[in-house]
Design a protein that fits this description.
With about 150 residues, the chain is mainly alpha-helical. The protein has helices spanning about 10-25, 25-30, 35-45, 50-60, 65-75, 95-120, 125-135; strands spanning about 50, 80-85, 90-95. The protein is about 65% helix and about 10% strand. Helix 4 crosses helix 5 (about 65-75). The longest helix is centred in the C-terminal third of the chain and has 22 residues, at about 95-120. It is globular and about 65 Å long.
Length: about 150
């Protein structure tokens, strides 16, 4: 008898919930910031500064979500709004010192989590997992249902 096919959607949902619980069990590392805010901080850490639309595209969310999130983060002192050097009509977001500290703390926790997730897998297997997850992340609502 052939083994049962993996139930990818169920496994992915369970994995997401387990990861969320793992992260929430370490509140000292996220001190006052949410996972969504960490994602925005990581984008800014990689880019230095970015427009709301650029961040939204990178995180795969609506620009309005980033606008609302960034307003809360600005009020908390994690990001600041700066004028674009090339286009005075455009505002960009940049991390403050507090945002950099929060991003660093969160990054240290995620390094540990990534190491734990990679245990027992070869680099080639991890590349396959990464490719599969990227494919899942690229699914579009309303796309062809072949």
């Amino acid at each position: 008898m052939a083994p049962a096919k993996p139930r990818f959607v169920q496994l992915l949902n369970r994995a997401q919930r387990a990861l969320q619980r793992w992260i929430e069990a370490r509140p000292e590392s996220w001190e006052g910031i949410s996972a969504a805010q960490v994602g925005l901080l990581f984008v800014l850490r990689a880019r230095g500064d970015a427009a709301v639309g650029e961040i939204a595209t990178e995180l795969g969310v609506a620009p309005a979500a980033i606008t609302n999130l960034s307003k809360r983060m600005q009020a908390a002192g994690l990001v600041e709004r700066v004028a674009d050097a090339r286009d005075a009509r455009l505002t960009r977001l940049r991390m403050t010192g507090s945002g950099q500290e929060a991003g660093t703390r969160a990054g240290e926790v995620l390094v540990k989590l990534n190491a734990r997730l990679a245990e027992g897998f070869t680099p080639e297997e991890l590349q396959t997992v990464a490719r599969w997850l990227a494919q899942a992340a690229a699914l579009e609502p309303g796309a062809s249902q072949d």
